[in-house]
Amino acid sequence: MDELALALGLLLATIAMELRYEARPEMVSYTLLALQLHLLSRRAAGRPTPAWIFVVAQLIWANMHSLFILGWLVMAVFVVGGWLETRKFDRGLALAMGAAIAVSFVNPYGLDGVRFPFTLLTRFQAGNPFAQSIGEFVSSMSPKLGEDFPNYPYWPIWSFRALMGLTAVGLFLLFRRRKYTALLLVLAFAPLGIRMIRNIPLAVIVVMPALIDVMPVGRWIEQRWKQPAMRHALPVAGILVAIVLSLRVFHDAYYLDTRHRLILPVEAAAFVNKANLPGAMLNHLNLGGYLMWATKGPVFIDGRLEVVGEAFFNDYNRILGSEIALEHAVARHDIGWIIIPYAGAPELIRRLSADFRWRLAHLDGLAAVFVRTDRADVRDRVESLID
C-alpha cells in the first residue's frame, strides 16, 4: 500500500465527508457499507472469510436503515467482478447473496420494509418535490450550488469534486490493470455522490480505496525527491492533518461553529417555552429539528423526509403558500401559533402581518412567532407576557 496515497486519500475523504458528520441514521449504513467492503475484499484476496457473515450483516442492516439494499449491490459486484478477474465463479458468495436478500424480509414490516428503499429512488428524479426544495438533494456538481445554497461550506464540496476528477483517471487505470471489481464499484457508487450531496459519503467510502490502490503517489514522489526524510514527512503530515480535522468533529467544534442565534431559533424557542402556548405548532421545515429538541410539544414537520413523505410535504408547501390552505390547516390541526424564519418565508410573513387573525408575538434575529387572535387561550398567554 502506498503510504502517501493513503495519507492524502484519508485527508481528502475526511474533508469531503464533513458535510454529513452529524448524528443521523445513515451513519449506520456508512459503517456497515465499509464493513461489507472490508470483508468482501478479504474474501476476494483469499483470506478466510466465511460467507455466512454477510447474511448476518445484512440481517442487521435491514433492521437498522433503509440503505441496506446497497449491501445487495456490493455483493453482486464482487460476484460479477470476481468472475471477470479470475474466470472462477464464487458459488459460496453467490449463495450468501441470495440468503442475504432473503433475510432482508425478516424485519418488522416484511415486504413493505424491503419495498421502502425502492420508493426512495423516486427522490433522485428531477421532478420530485424533495429534489426541487431540499438542499442536500442538489447535485454536488451543480454550477449554481454556491448561488442557490450559499451556506454550504466551500472546502468539502471542492474536495469531493477533486476526488471525482481523480476518479476519472482512476477508472482508466482500473480498467488497464483489469481490476474489474473495483471498476464496477466506482461506476456504481460515484454517480450517487455526484447526483446528491447527501450521498457523498457513500461515494467516498467506496471510491477512495480503489483510487488509493491504483495511484502510487509515493512512487511518483520518490522518483523526484531522493531524500528519505522528505518522502516520509509528507504522509505523516497528511495523516496528522486528517486526525486534527476528525478531532474537530469528535469534539463538536464543527457544529459549535454554527450553533448561534442566526442559525438556530434559540430565542424563539425560549419564548415559546416561556409562554407555554396552547394549540398545535406550525413550523418551518428548517427549524423542525431544533424545535423538536428545544420545545415541549410536537413539531408540525422536520427534516426526516422518509417519515414525512411527498404527499404531506406538498400539503406543507401549500399551507405556507396559500391563505386558504393555511386556514384549512388551522381548523384541521388546531394550530394556535406559527414559528418561521422570516428570511426563508418572506411572503408568508407579509401575509400574516396583514391578516387580522394573526398577531406578531415575538421577533428576533432569525425567527418570528405569530399567534391566533381568535383564540382567547393563546391571546391571553401572550398578553400576560407582554404586560
Name a few traits of the molecule.
387 residues; mainly alpha; D-Maltodextrin-Binding Protein, domain 2; 2 domains; four-stranded mixed beta sheet; 20 helices; 4 strands; 64% helix; 6% strand; elongated
Element layout with pairings:
Blueprint (H helix, E strand, L loop, with lengths): L2 H14 L9 H19 L7 H11 L6 H18 L4 H13 L7 H10 L8 H5 L11 H4 L5 H23 L3 H16 L4 H15 L2 H6 L5 H23 L2 H4 L9 H10 L4 E4 L4 H7 L10 H17 L1 H11 L1 E7 L4 H9 L3 E6 L3 E6 L3 H11 L1
Parallel strand pairs: 1-2
Antiparallel strand pairs: 2-4, 3-4
Task: Give an overview of the whole structure.
- This protein has 2 domains: 3-256, no CATH class; 266-386, 3-Layer(aba) Sandwich (D-Maltodextrin-Binding Protein, domain 2).
- The radius of gyration is 25 Å and the shape is elongated.
- The protein is mainly alpha-helical and 387 residues long.
- The protein has a 4-stranded mixed sheet with strand order 1-2-4-3, with helices on both faces.
- Helix content is 64%, strand content 6%.
- The relative contact order is 0.10.
- Helix 2 (26-44) packs parallel to helix 4.
Summary?
The chain has 387 residues and is mainly alpha-helical.
Report the count of strand segments. 4
Q: What's the structural domain tally? A: 2
Which class do the helix and strand fractions yield? mainly alpha
β-strand percent reads: 5-15%
Largest sheet: 4 strands, mixed
Morphology call: elongated
Measured between the Cα atoms of the first and last residue, the distance is 71 Å
Mean pLDDT across residues: 85
Tally of separate helices:
20
Oligomer: single chain
Task: Determine the fraction of residues in helical runs and give it as a percent range.
Answer: 55-70%
The side-by-side strand order for the widest beta sheet comes to: 1-2-4-3
